[in-house]
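Question (not urgent): is this output format expected?
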Amino acid sequence: MDSFRLITTYSPWLILACLAVGALYAWLLYSKRTPWTKGINYTLAAVRFVVVSFLCFLLLGPLVRYVSNSTQQPTIVFAVDNSQSVALFSDSVQLRQAQQGLQALRDKLQEKGIQTEVRVLGESDAPQNLEELQYESETTNLSQLLTNVQRDFEQQNLAGVVLLSDGIVNQGTSPTYANYNYTIYPVAVGDTVPKKDIVMASLRYNKVNYSGNRFPLEAELQQQGFDGATVTVQLKENKKVIDRKTVTLKAGQPLQQIPFQVMASGLGKRQYEVEVLPQQGEFTELNNSRSAYIDVVKGKIKVLVAAASPHPDIKALRAAIESNENYETELFIPGLTTLKQQDYDVAVLHQLPGRTAGGEAALNLVRQKNLPALYILGPQSDIGNFNRLNVGIRINTPGQSDEVTSVINPSFSTFKVAEEATERLQQYPPATVPYGDYQLTPNTETVLYQQVGRVRTNKPLLTVQTVGDKRNAALLASGTWQWRLTETANHENAAVYDKLITNLVQLLTAPRNKKRLNVYPQLNEYSNSDEIRFAAEAYNEALEPIYGQNITLKIQDTEGAEKSFEFANGENQSGVNIGTLPGGRYTYTASARINGSLQQDKGEFVVEEQQLEALHAVADHNLLYQLGANTGSKLYYPAQLQQLEQDILQAEHKELIYSSESLNDLVDLKWLFFVVLALVCAEWFVRKYNGSY
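Got this back:
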């Protein structure tokens, strides 16, 4: 029941003083001779007494303490494992009877004043009638189901949970490890008799592999009732068998490993399927195959670093290049190391061509392989031979040198330099450059200018030339090892120097026609119950990421049906959610206009029909028994639902009474203001009506 109390912040004896003030005020006002009758006079005096006394009482700061009580009936939740395994491996008649029995139990509990609710796996809505249950969930996560019940009814009178399940769990943790603050009444369905079956239990493999390498793929085969049988296990790519093995299923060894060695051919995402051919007498063939999804990538970018002779610049250059884990360097110095004949992606040529013999092998390799190259000039460089290479810059020098520092060209935008570059470049010591006149070809851009003292010149220090799909760069400075050393000493890292060198290498290895739009599914594997998300990356000419590009994505299935989506790529890689798709193979095309140029990307992905519910055909009633025992209950079967009803009712779940208390200032009650105002107005009207003020 509800109740309230009146509390004052001062001594209650002061209420007598308030009454005295009201009485005195009324006596002084109405003790004189009046033109109205005594009855009216006493009434007006009483009104004035009440109003004045009440106003004085409000000065004491009275509070109203209100206590509200509410009653909450006990609630029983019917949590149903509506996964496919329940329908696949349970007797249909028994399952139907269990649903009818639980609905009847629910009706009886409601008649007894106990509230009931229904919950099922996942986010799907539960039917109000348990007889209408559909077992369509493709995974079973009982821990999540029971935890969600505990969360949803945390502030309610949760008396217990009736759990209908076969005990098979294939996602999440086992619910037996959790502590639940309510009683669980498990009702067991399903068949605990082992089935004669062969299961492709799992596949083990590296998700990323280098093209041209063989990688291991190991299948785990599980069997029951086929001891000594011989089976065939096939490895498929694009539905074509690429390997086949005959395996004898050993007695007493229910789990066997079948290894494959797969050649990673091509680039991109590849799908492989491992399948065991069905055997006569198998309970089901739904679990005979599994798919693996491999991302085949190109190996590390190989950089040839060749020099006319040993020099401190070489170590600094290699350290900067290898700061990017995707790059590896190979050093060649004539007379000290051997030039290895490898498939290099780019070359860094320090003071080559040189004035001394020995570096021709590296120059010939660059010409034969048509490699992009970064040419670094120094005192040993042969300027005449360098000019004949036609790498975008021609130098006319009397053979003298100059000491210069570097300044960024603000108009250069092919790649980004580090944010700290402007500040840190000013701290670099001078480097040696050839003194003379410089001539640039029209297809050459300047990255850095020379600065002599505090005077900035228009002479280039670092240039990039673009000819068709090939680029070359020229760094006219020798002694840049001091740049890296100085930056590290001043800032504990050489971020600007390293980024400058790695950006150059990346720019040289990135052909102009390489795709600058990369749209891809965020996961390698999807099931038909997963929401599919696509991410997108857009790049400038140096293959550095840029954001805010408007992208059109089209998805097409094998039947030709197409869906279209539009979104913008963001720095947080939010991408686009295209929802769920039925199992099958899909192709996609994406397009965007980047810096006025139309860029496109395409690919494919596979949505796998989820078969987790078919992997385990044997019900796990022991798990259900442990759940009941852990919460003070026991295991029930569909034929024991009457006993379940009695146990729930005998538990005598009590109603809960919740009390809420509020404390408010009496003066804040608006209706009291209007009551006082009405009394004052009534008194004034009566006095006025009877000829007085």
